[in-house]
Write a structure and sequence with these properties.
Layout lengths: L1 H6 L2 E6 L22 H4 L5 H4 L13 E6 L15 E4 H7 L1 H14 L11 E2 L5
């Protein structure tokens, strides 16, 4: 993501059952950033992880879409107060993957992030 950030602005779509958003601001149970990767890439956590080369956050909240979230951990409720768009597992099942992908691209385009054919910005899909 650091390499992508050095090139241009990009969007991130994460398809996962977990938010991966635990950080020191919302949890005392944090042992490593590796399992909570959405937090540092959006600027939450120690500056040495969140602003490498002074480029943090690596992706802006409004350019992140999370699909498939199935848990409601009280410590992560601050996630829903962000500009990050979340479609939970039930919404994903109802709409189907094709519709969910379309909605994600539509949201990113609405924020000025264009598809990979653009010279100025690119959209990258990152899934687990």
């Amino acid at each position: 993501m650091l390499a992508l950030r050095k090139v241009s602005r990009f969007g991130l779509v994460s398809v996962d059952g977990h938010l991966h958003f635990r950080h020191f601001g919302n949890s005392v149970r944090l042992g490593a950033a590796a399992g909570e990767d959405l937090a540092p890439v959006t600027g939450r956590g120690p500056e040495r992880l969140t602003s490498i080369d002074g480029l943090g956050p690596l992706v802006r909240d409004d350019n992140v879409v999370v699909q498939g979230e199935r848990e409601d951990y009280p410590e992560w409720r601050d996630f829903h107060e962000r500009d990050i768009k979340v479609w939970n597992l039930q919404e994903l099942r109802t709409s189907g993957f094709a519709e969910a992908a379309e909605r994600a691209v539509e949201k990113l385009r609405g924020n000025g992030v264009e598809g990979s054919g653009s010279n100025s910005t690119r959209t990258f899909w990152v899934t687990r």
